Amino acid sequence: MDVTNSSFLPDVPTKRERITFVCDLELRDFLEKQAGAEKRSLSNFIEKMLEDMAKQNGYNPPEQN
């Protein structure tokens, strides 16, 4: 199944922003394995990595309800 086709992905309602980026297949494979090892989705794993990096550089996220 080709999940790269955007018509495959359902348009799930969310208040969160969507970001699309391009990376090497080898990097994606690596990230998917790391996400699986932490029992996270690829999207959640990448978001957590980016948030951790942003916090280290001064990002102060809003409090969640």
From TrEMBL:
Superkingdom, natural source: Bacteria
Protein name: CopG-like ribbon-helix-helix domain-containing protein
Organism: Stenomitos frigidus ULC18
